Recover the amino acids of this structure.
């Protein structure tokens, strides 16, 4: 796991650090075959305790964005998962943090880079004492 835990709590530092990260290294995906990508998602915090699966492999089209990853997780884990991560308008809750290649990500429409080697997407729900 490559989560920058200082980025979980310190939102200002996270925004500055994200800008320094080249776009090609922000997404965590492995090319499987033409047209498909494999994404490895790890769940932490309250999400990990609410699901029987903490480490999930997904296969998505090469045009997938982070929002597509969340939609696929919702189909697999159910509506209760989506309600914990997204609000009714489809925006990510403030207490939910997503990390792509160890860096915090806010833009759910960011496409996944299918040319990268296999990496991780980490999702954590923070409780109040952790900054949630």
């Amino acid at each position: 796991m490559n989560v920058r835990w200082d980025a979980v709590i310190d939102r200002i530092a996270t925004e500055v650090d994200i800008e320094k990260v080249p776009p090609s290294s922000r997404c965590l995906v492995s090319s499987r075959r033409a047209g498909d990508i494999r994404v490895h998602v790890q769940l932490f915090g309250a999400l990990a305790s609410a699901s029987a699966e903490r480490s999930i492999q997904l296969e998505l089209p090469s045009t997938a964005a982070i929002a597509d990853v969340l939609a696929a997780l919702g189909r697999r884990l159910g509506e209760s998962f989506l309600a914990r991560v997204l609000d009714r308008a489809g925006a990510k809750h403030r207490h939910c943090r997503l990390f792509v290649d160890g860096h915090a990500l806010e833009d759910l429409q960011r496409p996944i880079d299918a040319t990268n080697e296999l990496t991780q997407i980490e999702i954590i729900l923070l409780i109040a004492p952790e900054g949630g």
